[in-house]
Automatic annotation (TrEMBL):
Entries under SUPFAM superfamilies matching the protein: YdhG-like
Biased composition (Polar residues): 1-13
Span list, region Disordered: 1-37
The protein's name: YdhG-like domain-containing protein
Basic and acidic residues compositional bias, start-end: 19-34
Organism: Sinosporangium siamense
Length: 153
């Protein structure tokens, strides 16, 4: 499908996206096509997450390995899966929390975030939905653990 710009030029819907955004879109389409359910699917999803983590730059890999361990211990009911090619953790197929590699996104920090499926709503109508990560102190690990437990409560 193409569209016409004001100057009469045609463009594809993928134009205007960065190389990383196009790769994420393609990865998400592949994830959706994989579909399936059951323990084989869960094992394959976790293997895909671990493979994605292993493929990260060393500094992001260290963060991702710790986040993976924290999330899976704090909320074992969450299933690891890839989401836009990055590690995510889902309940009933809906992503609750996710990690974005800063180096892959060409950012100065990685991000740990929560989707609308997370139970984080606060009184006052405002709450954070993602956090920048450059390193994980004990306090940061405790915060992630607490937030993940709240997100699935």
């Amino acid at each position: 499908m193409s569209s016409t710009s004001k100057a009469g030029e045609t463009s594809t819907p993928m134009e205007g996206f960065s190389e990383q955004e196009r790769a994420a879109i393609k990865a998400r389409a592949k994830e959706l096509k994989a579909g399936g359910r059951g323990s084989k699917k869960a094992a394959a999803d976790e293997a895909a997450v671990l493979s994605a983590i292993a493929g990260m730059a060393p500094s992001d890999r260290v963060l991702a390995e710790r986040v993976h361990a924290i999330v899976t211990a704090a909320a074992p009911e969450l299933a690891p899966k890839l989401w836009y090619g990055q590690p995510a953790y889902a309940r009933a197929g809906k992503v609750v929390c996710f990690l974005r590699s800063g180096q892959l996104d060409k950012e100065r920090y990685s991000s740990f975030g929560f989707s609308v499926a997370a139970n984080l709503d606060e009184d006052g109508g405002m709450w954070p939905t993602s956090y920048a990560l450059t390193e994980l102190s004990e306090a940061a690990e405790a915060t992630i653990r607490k937030l993940v437990q709240k997100a699935v409560s």
